[in-house]
Amino acid sequence: MKNIYFVQANAVYGDTVKSTYIPYAAGCIISYAMSVESIRNNYSFGRFIYTREDIATAIETLEDPFIVGFSSSVWNNEYNKAFAKALKEKFPRCITVFGGHQINPDAYAAFSEYEDADILIHGGGEEAFAEILINLSLNKALDGINNISVKHRDGTIYDGKRENPSTPDYPSPYLNGTFDCILSDGYDFSAIIETNRGCPNSCAFCDWGILRSKVRKFDINKVYAELEWLAHHKIEYVYCADANFGLFDRDMDITDKFIELKNRYGYPKKLKVNFTKNRCDFVGDISRKLSENDMGKSQTLSFQSVDDTVLSIIGRKNIDLKHFRQLLTMYAKDGIPTYSELILGLPGETYESFTKGLCTLIENGQHKSINIYPCELLPNSKLGSEEFIKKYDIKTTRLPFLQFHCKKENSGITEYSNLITSTSSMSREDWVDSYFFATLIQSFHCLDITREIAIFMRTLHNIPYNDFYKKLLSFVNTGDNSTLKCIFTRIRKHIDGISLAKNPIGFYDDRFGRISYEPDEHMFLSCVYESEKIYNEIKEFLCTILPENHAELLVSYQKELLYLPGKTDTEISIPVDFPAFFDAAEKGGEAILQKNNITVGLTVPSEVASWEHYARECVWYGRRNEGMHMKIRKQDS
Asked: What is the DSSP secondary-structure string of 527-566?
């Protein structure tokens, strides 16, 4: 029997409790291969390397490896290359097969990068990997197999035809025991499932829909059986990798099955999906069910960009802003958190269009959660094609890749991202300014250092959010060496270093533990750590616009809403009905500030004893549910 091994090294999250993903992609490929009788008769599967094990130690555990597969993504690509190099040194006759999202569609360019790869798989790997094994067992040439490239010993390259796989379904690696060998390894596992595969869309920044493949629905009985498996094995967090969950009516039935299992067994506890963009009401019903059963974190209302020119370039169409506002109002009334997404660095975007678009989302009611993703140039996306790169003068920065909320990597192997940091419409300097402004909006408005203040100024003084935050930024930058200026300067310098490949995106700060945090989380934590100072400085800014007594009252209320370590339940007396005013404003209603002496009860959202605990529980885990915000529990006239 010839031995097969598979490497899909995932990140390990957290510090005290260690969580990682079950190696789903590798498991699917092995599961499909071992369903073929001739492969079972000739091959034996050894083990998964599914975390960043010490490479030399891991290789010592391999027994006469005949073929080793590598699933390459941005978070493990360099690890895989280093592993293959060391593997070839010890087992030079071992065949190495690389696949995954990072594999360049240009076979010659890919083999230049993957020097120790013998075979490349392009696209889905189940069929191709199985055909490779069958041909090798029969001593047949691999030339003629679709979706692979082969480097021959004489240096020539076979580059197979690309086509979408047509297999209607695949055997489940959960149900056939493929993952049983790792379940006792001591990790708090998260899992990935698919109920279908394929994407009908063709967004230029994404590599899912580049082939506009027909969506293949997997057998519903298999899907339900997998969900039962997840529940019985107490998998807390499940990520559904469907490109467009909610595209099919049966997705409601799948949602109901998740909820049924949680109510019966307590697992899975959370479900993350990628919602389809074109069935808002149907998706809303799914999201409402997940929220009511504490399974869904929030509802996605994505944009990528608000600018029509950018949307045309990337082949994207958004819901109109009026409908967006209606959806936000509906979800807010139902108590369902929402979040929106923008991508920074898309061709056609400028500093002005990006910052305007960001604040347009706030103007239309998205106050609590806007995610900003620097655009990663994916080799299998349209954006990564030579035509797009040349046409829009796309320039990338290759910088160290950092997995957020993980400890520092000690393997000595650095992973890299290729971020778009300059285009024909946005200079590198504008990219830095845009990213910093987005970080400011996320930390000050969405995470709520100044959200109520900004809403007050917009509603009663007609200062648009874009103007308010740019005025605040100008006030800080042109002022004395304040606490805010020191924090802003340090973070902007770090972002500038990102664009120059000097810094990773995330931040480590011993005050908040040993794991990394996103830029907006770090800005928020740095500011609230110095909350007394920064709110005094914010009051100084407001006094340039408002009478001092109004600024004092507004800042005092904003500060009371902020939850911090050691804070306890309290009551405050205020001369105006701020709670009703801000609740109406955030939900899209008529916001009228009533003068009325009231007592407001404020309850802590959780109890944390340290800044490390606060950062993890309230900011990382709790940000979608406003874990850093005191809960208003009563209101008396």
From this structure: HHHTHHHHHHHHHHHHTTTS-HHHHHHHHHHHHHHB--TT
pLDDT higher than 80, residue 366: yes
- How far does the chain reach from its first CA to its final CA, in angstroms? 80
On the 0-12 / 13-18 / 19+ scale of CB atoms within 10 A, 450 is buried
Q: What is the pLDDT of residues 516-539, one digit of tens each?
A: 999 999 999 999 999 999 999 999
Pairwise CA distance, residues 126 & 521, whole Å: 39
DSSP 443: I
The single residue listed with the structure tokens 């990337």 is: 314
Tell me the longest C-alpha to C-alpha distance in the chain.
Answer: 87
In the chain, what percentage of residues exceed pLDDT 70?
A: 98
Find out whether 46 and 94 touch, Cβ atoms under 8 Å: no
- Residue count of the chain, please give it: 637
CA dist., res. 520 & res. 446, Å (int): 9
Cα separation, 244 vs 315, whole angstroms: 16
In SS3 terms, 368-407 reads as CCEEEEECECCCCCHHHCHHHHHHCCCEEEEEECCCCCCE
Q: pLDDT (tens digit, 9 = 90+) per residue, 391-440?
A: 999 999 999 887 888 888 776 899 999 999 999 999 999 999 999 999 99
Q: Angle 249-255-261 (CA atoms, 0-180°, nearest 5)?
A: 145
Q: What mean pLDDT is predicted for residues 41-47?
A: 97
CA atoms within 13 A on the CB side of 157: 17
Residue 324: predicted pLDDT? 84
CA distance linking residue 254 with residue 219, whole number of Å: 12
> Could you tell me the strand order of the sheet in which 631-636 lies?
570-576, 595-603, 631-636
Confidence at residue 142, expressed as pLDDT on a 0 to 100 scale: 96
| DSSP per position, 69-101 | EEE--TTTHHHHHHHHHHHHHH-TT-EEEEEST
From the number of C-beta atoms within 10 Å of its C-beta (0-12, 13-18, 19+), residue 180 rates as exposed
Smallest CA-to-CA distance from 10 within 96, 94, 72 is with 72
241 phi and psi angles, rounded to 5 deg = -90, 10
Which bin fits 490, alpha (ψ -120 to 50), beta or left (φ > 0)? alpha
Return phi, psi of residue 140, to 5°: -95, 150
Q: How many Cα neighbours within 13 Å face the side chain of 297?
A: 20
Report yes or no: 405 and 13 within 8 Å, Cβ to Cβ.
yes
DSSP, residue by residue, 91-143: -TT-EEEEESTTS-SSHHHHHHH-TT-SEEE-S--HHHHHHHHHHHHTT---T
Return the closest-CA partner of residue 113 out of 422, 416, 444, 498.
Answer: 416
> What predicted TM-score, i.e. pTM, was given to this entire model?
0.88
The pLDDT of residue 27 = 97
Is the separation of the CB atoms in 629 and 618 below 8 Å? no
* Range picked from 318-322, 336-340, 549-553 for highest mean pLDDT: 549-553
SS3 for 302-367 is CCECCCHHHHHHHCCCCCCHHHHHHHHHHHHHCCCCEEEEEEECCCCCCHHHHHHHHHHHHHCCCC
Using alpha carbons, select from 181, 192, 301 the residue that is nearest to residue 237: 192
The angle subtended at Cα 160 by Cα 154 and Cα 164, nearest 5°, is 160
